[in-house]
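Record 1 of the preview.
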Amino acid sequence: MPARGNAVLPLVLLPGMMCDARVFGPQIAALSSLCGLHLPGPLARPSVGAMAEAVLADAPPQFALAGLSMGGIVAMEIAARAPERVLRLALMDTNPLAEAAEMQARRGPQMERVRAGGLAGVMRDEMKPNYLTEGPRRAEILDLCLEMALALGDEVFCAQSEALRDRPDQRAVLSALGVPALVLCGRSDRLCPVERHELMQSLIPGSVLHIVEGAGHLPCLEQPEETTAALRCWLEV
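->
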């Protein structure tokens, strides 16, 4: 595990939209005895900057940082705001670009539907079908995704939707990074395709790209052993 002097460097884990720490369940089980894990509360602010500040306010002085999907977007903002505190960065199934106009246009109707009591329907009809590739645990993982979303609720959905809609482009941030970096994604990720991760790897000096076969947007659950192994290698650089 990464060391800071004689101390083990803590690992901060940031989940994706409408996910909680359960999305990292296999990694928490595998890594908790090896390094201190820091699991922030719900990322429930209406801007990526406000989310980043909330994480930083409660995070250790220095840490390794891993973010999945929306958590990766927040992780990039944290690295921009406090580069001296982020000593390792892992970006998983995420996107460094500002949101495309087409997706921005979809956010408003989604939020209206959720405010009218349709959170379960939005997750079931518009989000969950894009999460995973086919596999024996697909139904189980999708059920967990819905459980996490319903536990977080309508207000968190709307705040996160606003934050993602208005997020900044982070390519300049990635080019300025000077820490060990892992870029990881599922081969079949439709939300954040491989090309986005190849772009990130090309921007981050010395970064490692790891593509997980047999996984979509949530390799941490779809292929947990391979994802954990990649994180372990990144932590031990």
